[in-house]
Amino acid sequence: MQVSPTLELHVGRHKVGVNRPEKQLFPEDGITKADLADHYRRVARRMVPELRGRPLMLERMPDGIRGRRFIQKEVPDHFPDWVHRATVAKEGGEVTHVTCDDTATLVYLAGQACITPHRWLSRADRPRNPDRVVFDLDPSADDFEAVRRAAHRLYELLDELELPSALMTTGSRGLHVLVPLNRGDDADDVLAFARAVADTLAARYADELTTEPRKDAREGRLLIDTARNGYAQTAVAPFAVRPLPGAPVAAPLAWDELDAPELTARRWTVTDLGDRLESDPWAGLGRHGHSVSAAGRRLRALTGTG
User: Fold this and answer.
1) What is the value of pTM for the model shown?
2) CA-CA distance, 1 to 3, in Å (whole number)?
């Protein structure tokens, strides 16, 4: 059977073309560009609310995960007018990003071989005021038990600070722990708070945890990475596909799922989302954001530093 060079999809009010739909982006798994578009269409109901209004950084791999990779911030001229844009400040000027405000845009990005959209932690209307703080738990080796243990440690500290938190597999090696914010604090203050939390936890469990980004200085310890909280930094979006064999997917989960024996950072994939779309473990997370200013005062009181 001859394969059409373009797959035309009707998504909402838009017609989205996927060129070379049979192109295998994950050759070991037989996953094509059409499969990627289908994945993003399936998860859009849950994913788009997590992306809406946020500048995106696009990780594109037009030749598949074994080919060249490039990171795109500026919107290309050929993107259709109905794809929303947001212009934000950068050092020495401005940059205009894609924002993904509907399912059609998400499917269109898949058609552009955007395997992984990375989102800002703030929205474009107030780009210096994040509504999330993210702790990236990154093991030195492929050791998920260390990640599981670190997540429990971090949950306990955040609970001491009266901060609710949410959990997500990264689809790579670790977990992200997120705290909802009220958009009242500047990105520099959010980053400083995240670093202070990470430093406190690493001091408590110095044999297990570190904030040292250089691998040769970690001495086998798990990194609590807070760099994603800086202005214009990004974090992988929920339900985003990672460019790794098996096409693993970043997936939100509930805290009571953390100790499930089958849980790993790559537990869910494009071909096996399991029950991830049946319920939302993050439901209501963003309704009551918190202030890092208040939490910082509690942290200083807890550590005796202020």
Assistant:
1) 0.95
2) 6
